[in-house]
Each structure stands twice: as structure tokens, then as C-alpha cells.
Specification:
Elements lengths: L1 H6 L3 H13 L3 H29 L1 H19 L5 H29 L2 H33 L3 H23 L16 H11 L10 H22 L1 H8 L4 H15 L2 H12 L1 H21 L3 H14 L2 H48 L3 H19 L14
Helix pairs in contact: 2-6, 2-7, 2-10, 3-4, 3-5, 3-15, 4-5, 4-7, 5-15, 6-7, 6-11, 6-12, 6-15, 8-15, 9-15, 9-16, 10-11, 11-14, 12-13, 12-15, 13-14, 13-15, 13-16, 15-16
Length: about 400
């Protein structure tokens, strides 16, 4: 998660102002670069999840993360908009091939009652990356000047390649490979999981349950990526922040978000995935609104803290929900499909937000749009059914 999302996607947020200046890009083009990355992610989301279900997550994760690392290094060599877009797309392909199987892997290692907590711990990798990037990027830019953004991508890519190598040797597809059973597994789990696994993974794609989860997930993809992509740009361009000050607030958001997935994953284990999603979406809507409506240090800080408290909770809850409904064998395929829908929202949002900013001269309307979509996510979450009433054979 640190490499496939934290560096490959969110590293762009901190590098964006310097990269935009170095390649002479307008806001629409910077949005398109983010969209290119997310389209690449979208392409491999379903394929990566299905491949992990068939061939095992370990191999798919290692290959995907290696590709993302190489593509980040190539991004640092880009000499214009089109080459940058190509390498950002390739980075997204590697991210999609590695991130979805990682989250799906948790369903094999953890029983239902611990799955939300486990997913929450896993997504904290993105928080660690925010801390790392917020600290590193301003210093690298200060040392290397106009080529600093290139050096940042070289560092991001190198670190990700090291993680890919470590993951290949350390990850295992299932506890049985170590003579273990899933953490927290009880007799009931052993009875339920084989019944689910009798279904071919293609049945997942015909389940109304997975499509409902996916449509709710779209709201997160569309709304949060606007906030994350243009966070630093907005602070510098419209908040009169320096690169160092923006990096400090970005790092603060990372520190605040460090335990958010763990906390909300555990909360969803107790109060249910539906209630947890409603609360989180409402907090996101508040955060994005504050970022637009209170353009002062206090408003920016409160917005960053609110988002940090809930930042990666929705992916953690969604990963747990897929495990609840579809079981460990089919969870990666289910997660891949809902990530496809999530990715559609995520892919189109930056280009729309960038175009709005160029047309209006401000990101004000773009952040309000993100808030409105987050509110729609809360409404959609309210209509979700409990996992126990969303069987896999409830087909469209």
C-alpha cells in the first residue's frame, strides 16, 4: 500500500506544482496526468483481482509493484506532457495489479470478526507515505532545484522496487502454506467459506450485492481524488502557502490518518459496514466543504485533520465487506470489480476538476463538487443491506 498507492499516486500531489512548472502544463493537463494514472489503475483493477483469485496474490502483487516502480523512474525522465501521461498510465497499471490483490489477500488471513481491523492496518501504508512524501519532497526540491521533481520520482520508484522484492519473498497466498488457519477462525468460518467458494468467480460479476457496493464506492473515488490531487496546488496558489508549509500540512494529514483505517475498520466490525460508511462519507463532505469555504490556515488545517481521521477508512471497509459477502477465495475478484467502478469515478474527476479550475480561475467549485459527491456516497451507503442478506447468488 505504501508503494502502490502512497508513492505511486499520492506522491504526485506533492510533486505536482514543481512538475507543472518544469513541463509547462496548465491545470487541465495536470488533471489529465492524474486521470491517465487512474485509467491505468482502472484497466488492471478487475484483471488483477481476477488473476489473484486464479493464480494467487503473491505473484500478481510482485509483478504489479515492480511495474509501478519502473514506471515511476520513467516518469522522472519525461520531457513533455505526452511522455509524462504515458508513464503515469503505466504506473497506474502497476498500482492496480498490486493494490487490489493486497487488499483481497486479507480475506484469506483473517476471519470475519477481524477483517475490518486488518484491512484498516493495511491501508495505513498510504498514511506512512503521506508522512514520508511530505517530509522528503520539499527538501529534495530545495536541493535539486528545477530537477527536484525528477529526483523525487527516481526515489519513489526505487523505494517501490525494493518493496516489490521484499513482498515477493515475504507474502504468502494463504495461511495453510505455513500450516496455519486464518486469525480468529472458528468452526462457523470453516463451514461458511466452502459454500461460498463453490461458485465460480464469474458469478461475482452477476451479483447485485457487488454492484451496489461498487456504486457506493464510486462516490469515494470521485470526491477524494479531487481533494488529494489538488491539495498542495490549492494551498500554494490560493492559500499563499510555501512548498515547505504545504508539505508540513500534508505530513500532518499523514500523521493524523495513520490509524484511521485501523480505527474505522474496527468500528465497522462492531457497528456494521453500512453505518460506518455513512459516518465517514459525512465527515468527508464536511472536510471538502471547509477546504473551499474557509480559505485560511485554520480552515485548511481543520479540513486536513477531518480528512486524515477518515482518509483510508472506506477502502478498508469495502475490502472487509467483500470478504464478508464473498469469502476469502472470491474476495479479490469482488474487490476488483468494485474497484473498477471506484476507478471510473476516480479517473474522470481530476480532469473535470482541472478544467473547472482553468475555467473559473479557482479550485473553489471543484472542492464543492467533491463535497456534494461525498454526500451522495452517504445516501448510497444508507441503502446498503447487511452482508448476511447480500448472498453471492443474488444476481441481477
Amino acid at each position: 500500500m505504501f508503494g502502490s498507492l502512497g508513492l505511486a499516486r499520492f506522491g504526485y500531489t506533492m510533486v505536482l506544482p514543481s512538475m507543472q512548472e518544469g513541463l509547462h502544463l496548465d491545470n487541465t493537463q495536470t488533471g489529465v496526468l492524474a486521470t491517465a494514472n487512474l485509467i491505468g489503475y482502472l484497466v488492471l483493477a478487475v484483471i488483477g483481482g481476477a488473476a489473484a483469485s486464479r493464480y494467487g496474490p503473491r505473484l500478481v502483487i510482485g509483478a504489479g509493484l515492480s511495474l509501478a516502480g519502473i514506471a515511476m523512474v520513467l516518469t522522472g525522465l519525461a520531457n513533455g506532457f505526452y511522455t509524462a501521461a504515458a508513464w503515469r498510465a503505466l504506473t497506474g497499471i502497476g498500482s492496480g495489479a498490486s493494490n487490489v490483490p493486497v487488499m483481497g489477500l486479507l480475506a484469506s488471513w483473517f476471519a470475519t470478526k477481524h477483517r475490518g481491523l486488518a484491512a484498516g492496518i493495511a491501508v495505513s501504508g498510504s498514511s506512512l507515505a503521506l508522512i514520508f512524501v511530505g517530509f522528503l519532497v520539499p527538501r529534495v526540491l530545495d536541493i535539486y532545484g528545477e530537477n527536484g521533481w525528477r529526483m523525487c520520482w527516481f526515489i519513489f520508484g526505487g523505494v517501490t522496487l525494493l518493496i516489490a522484492i521484499g513482498g515477493f519473498f515475504l507474502l504468502r497466498n494463504r495461511p495453510a502454506e505455513r500450516g496455519l488457519k486464518p486469525l480468529g477462525a472458528e468452526r462457523e468460518d470453516a463451514v461458511l467459506i466452502p459454500n461460498v467458494e463453490k461458485f465460480h468467480w464469474g458469478r461475482v460479476y452477476r451479483s447485485s450485492a457487488v454492484w451496489h457496493l461498487g456504486l457506493v464506492y464510486v462516490a469515494f473515488g470521485f470526491s477524494y481524488i479531487i481533494y488529494m490531487t489538488f491539495f498542495t496546488k490549492h494551498l500554494i496558489a490560493e492559500g499563499a502557502y510555501s512548498q515547505e508549509a504545504a508539505g508540513s500540512l500534508f505530513m500532518t494529514m499523514g500523521w493524523v490518518s495513520l490509524l484511521c483505517g485501523l480505527i474505522w475498520g474496527a468500528i465497522s466490525d462492531v457497528i456494521g459496514r453500512r453505518r460506518a460508511l455513512i459516518i465517514v462519507y459525512l465527515i468527508h463532505a464536511t472536510s471538502f466543504s471547509l477546504f473551499a469555504l474557509w480559505p485560511a490556515p485554520a480552515g485548511f488545517t481543520l479540513s486536513a485533520v477531518l480528512f486524515g481521521l477518515t482518509a483510508w477508512s472506506i477502502p478498508a471497509i469495502m475490502a472487509a465487506a467483500c470478504g464478508d459477502v464473498f469469502g476469502p477465495r472470491l474476495a479479490p475478484a469482488a474487490l476488483g470489480l468494485i474497484t473498477l467502478l471506484f476507478g471510473i469515478g476516480q479517473a474522470i474527476a481530476p480532469s473535470i476538476a482541472g478544467a473547472i479550475a482553468d475555467a473559473t480561475g479557482s479550485f473553489f467549485a471543484a472542492f464543492l463538487l467533491a463535497a456534494a459527491v461525498a454526500l451522495l456516497g452517504a445516501v448510497g451507503s444508507y441503502t446498503l443491506r447487511p452482508a448476511s442478506t447480500m448472498p453471492i447468488n443474488d444476481s441481477l
